[in-house]
Specification:
- β6 and β7 form a beta hairpin.
- The relative contact order is 0.20.
- The protein has one domain.
- 31% of the residues lie in helices and 19% in strands.
- It is an alpha/beta fold.
- It starts with a strand and ends with a helix.
Length: 155
């Protein structure tokens, strides 16, 4: 079982009400059992919603309350991101998922890189909130931009 960001599978759950459908992901997933998830929706956020970015750190810092996830209008929505991460982890554990393919640079799902909190499209090193929690629990997290075919077929 592999968790996959629902937006990558064509589900319109992205902050702007659209998706990030990846034909490569869809092709790969024909050969794997997948569980589509949207941590932001699982955390109670609506679609569409204002863009959000992590300010003051990265996902692990949000989990430890040292950083915040702020909407573009300044509203603190950290708790929704934490809840979404926790719900995603529950799904992963209940389904026995050992891997996840999540959306690159997302404040929930980014792996290794996230937007820097300025809402100017700049990138910073770090993981999103859900990715940080999944990694803490030993779940491998990749993005749609990773060399996922090799990584997932060798598991």
């Amino acid at each position: 079982m592999i968790l996959v960001s629902a937006c990558l599978m064509g589900v319109d759950c992205k902050y702007n009400g659209k998706n990030n459908k990846s034909l490569e992901i869809l092709e790969l997933m024909k050969h794997k059992q997948v569980i589509p998830v949207c941590p932001e929706q699982l955390g109670g956020l609506t679609t569409p919603r204002l863009a959000a970015e992590i300010q003051g750190g990265e996902g692990k810092d949000v989990l430890s309350k040292k950083a915040k996830v702020l909407r573009k209008d300044g509203a603190d929505i950290s708790e929704a991101f934490i809840k979404g991460a926790e719900e995603t982890l529950k799904i992963a554990e209940s389904m026995g998922a050992k891997s996840a393919v999540l959306k690159a640079r997302s404040p929930s799902c980014g792996t290794g890189e996230i937007y820097d909190g300025t809402f100017k499209g700049k990138i910073a090193k770090g993981d999103g909130v859900t990715t940080a929690l999944l990694k803490m629990k030993g779940i491998q997290v990749l993005t749609e931009e990773s060399d996922i075919i090799i990584a997932l077929t060798n598991r």
